[in-house]
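Predict the 3D structure for this chain.
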Amino acid sequence: MPTPYEAQALYELQRWQHEMLREPSAFDNISRKAQVRLNSYIPEKVHQALTSAIKQMIQGVLFGADYIAPQPLVQAPLEERETQVRQQGKYYQQAAAAEGGVTGAGGILLGLVDFPLLLGLKLKMLYDVAALYGYDVKDYRERVFLLHVFELAFSSKEHRRQVYLRLADWETQKELLPEDLNQFDWRSLQQEYRDYIDLAKLAQMLPLVGAPVGAFVNYRLIGKLCDTAINAYRMRWREQKKLMA
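Done. Predicted structure below.
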């Protein structure tokens, strides 16, 4: 029998899964078409440059995991793990809000600096979350799992369904992974991520409102990533419980 906390976690997981599988609304489809059209006006060289930049930034942190990854937490109940995960999430939200406020107050130039700084905070938080759920990100497959969690958090409703289905069947999917991370679909990741945060980050560069917008947006983005990671790892926890039953 699940504990009261585990029962509540399973209920929350079911609601989240339903949201991940929900079809895009008419408004979502219109917005998506507008974004696709806008992307078509951007020169291919710019797309390639953005893809390369994001790929290099993420790979730089991913392959530095051997040096910064915490030790996995073993033999702990779900409630203890998630209490610590939420504490870490709050810490990273506060750090991201402070960073967003400073760079937002600095206008366009410092606003551009915010992008890699925030990306680094997000990835570092994911390492901590993975370890608290008992997973070792020194394992290449666990790093790819984190990439998909990141992608799921910052994707359109149309794209996130595909990513979710991959994560929901992770035990099968991880055995099919290529050894070369260059085969990951970096183009889709950068476009979805950029499209998701574009408007908010543009507002961050405006005078007067840049600082509060930067702090608020960064706080919310970290919170969304943390919630997505919690539910992604809950799916794996649930599958492990089934195997042990």
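The first helix runs from residue 4 to 21.
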